[in-house]
Amino acid sequence: MRLSRYFLPVLKETPSEAQIVSHRYMLRAGMIKQASAGIYSWLPLGFKVLKKIENIVHEEQQRAGHIPMLMPTIQSADLWRESGRYDDYGEEMLRITDRHNRDMLYGPTNEELITDIFRAHVGSYKDLPLTLYHIQWKFRDEIRPRFGVMRGREFYMKDGYNFDVSKDAALHAYNRHLVSYLRSYERMGLQAIPMRADGGPIGGDYTHEFLVLADTGESEVFYDSAVTDLTFGDRDIDYDDVAQCQAVLEEFTSRYARTDETHDEALFNAIPEDRRRTARGIEVGQIFYFGTKYSEAMGATVQTADGKSVPVHMGSHGIGVSRLLGAIIEASHDDKGIIWPESVTPFHCGIVNLKQGDAEADAACDALYQSLTALGLDPLYDDRSERAGGKFATMDLIGLPWRITVGPRGLKNGVVELTSRRTGESEEMTPEMAVEKVAKIYAPRASM
Ligand code: ATP
Ligand code: MG
């Protein structure tokens, strides 16, 4: 993309309404624009990152054997009356009446809708296990929307639902989700720690929230510092292997790590003092086994192998896709702007032409642009007639991990400069070498 033809409404001033760095940078970098409280338009740059994050979530869910689909945003109140949640959900639910005076709502989550689909089409244990998921906009009329996309009213969420014939089978689905979530967050360059959470009114021990540590997080968390040493890495996990998935769960959840809702002072104090940590965290996901709550209320049963009819065991599993943009920025920025991990960057690298209009510089930039594009890469070429300082500031703000700088002086010696946004280090090399290097950096991802 040539910047002169793109839509990147960068702001010079820091918007006064933004209290945290991710919100400030998302506004300043022209990624989002508030439409009304807690509701945002996704401008082209923000939309690109949103889609990259969404894509990682899709890939990891499908790797785990979970099946994508799409349910609507607007739902009928009748299903929610069946489960009893139409009255229970309270003021966070946006209720709508259509022209025929029917009660509708903008879905805050989808347990009812998916259970309705299940009961209409599945009747036998032979069709299980089954996990269906979608990535769709949700609406919750949050009392205090704030921090930009972190706590919106309209937000984009992956929600998945497992259906299993028994509790044991459903717990395997739970473990499988934990593994797939660890993989997803790590691919986004995040460490998200599974922490024991509160089952809420449904109760039960089987729920974990995934938290990214950040001073601006809304949750207070308590953990054994040993949990931050764990990484999933590129392990080859067989998602059908019950023991393997169970082992990962145990490895990642056996140490103390809890939100304030489940915090236990006595257990916490049993951790060696130098490993006790209290911090803030951003909740980027939650997994949940809730048994037969919805299947019993809504009559979703299956025949077992010995002919009995039993309510199906279910769980639901959510990832805050739009909130993740904020979480990634909170975890990866400096005082000049965002620093995107390569896996979610909106463009693979920037090209800065120091002297637009100089025949040689323009030709070198065009050639770089074409070589990178031919290799399947997506560069952003700043071809505006702006001064160099302004171009650098824009590139730093929008956070592309790599920048190739082209100017008449370097070209006299046959070189351009390749700069890492993260380290600030620059290296001179021929344009061909710069292309090769950038291509190599992204090569492992291209094959994923
Ligand atoms: P919170 O405690 O932050 O209100 P929640 O526990 O109610 O969230 P879940 O129902 O677990 O949320 O939803 C799954 C994920 O969706 C959360 O882990 C979070 O990442 C994201 N999410 C929830 N509410 C919002 C919101 N208002 N804005 C953006 N993302 C959200
Ligand atoms: Mg939650």
TrEMBL record:
InterPro entries: aa-tRNA-synt_IIb (IPR002314), aa-tRNA-synth_II (IPR006195), aa-tRNA-synth_II/BPL/LPL (IPR045864), Anticodon-bd (IPR004154), Anticodon-bd_dom_sf (IPR036621), Pro-tRNA-ligase_IIa (IPR002316), Pro-tRNA_synthetase (IPR050062), Prolyl-tRNA_ligase_IIa_type2 (IPR023716)
Alphabetized UniProt keyword annotations: Aminoacyl-tRNA synthetase, ATP-binding, Cytoplasm, Ligase, Nucleotide-binding, Protein biosynthesis
SUPFAM superfamilies the UniProt entry points to: Class II aaRS ABD-related (SSF52954), Class II aaRS and biotin synthetases (SSF55681)
CDD domains named in the record: ProRS_anticodon_short, ProRS_core_prok
EC main group: ligase
GO BP terms in the entry: prolyl-tRNA aminoacylation
Residues covered by the Aminoacyl-transfer RNA synthetases class-II family profile domain: 33-341
Assigned protein family: Belongs to the class-II aminoacyl-tRNA synthetase family. ProS type 2 subfamily.
Protein name (record): Proline--tRNA ligase
Organism: Litoreibacter roseus
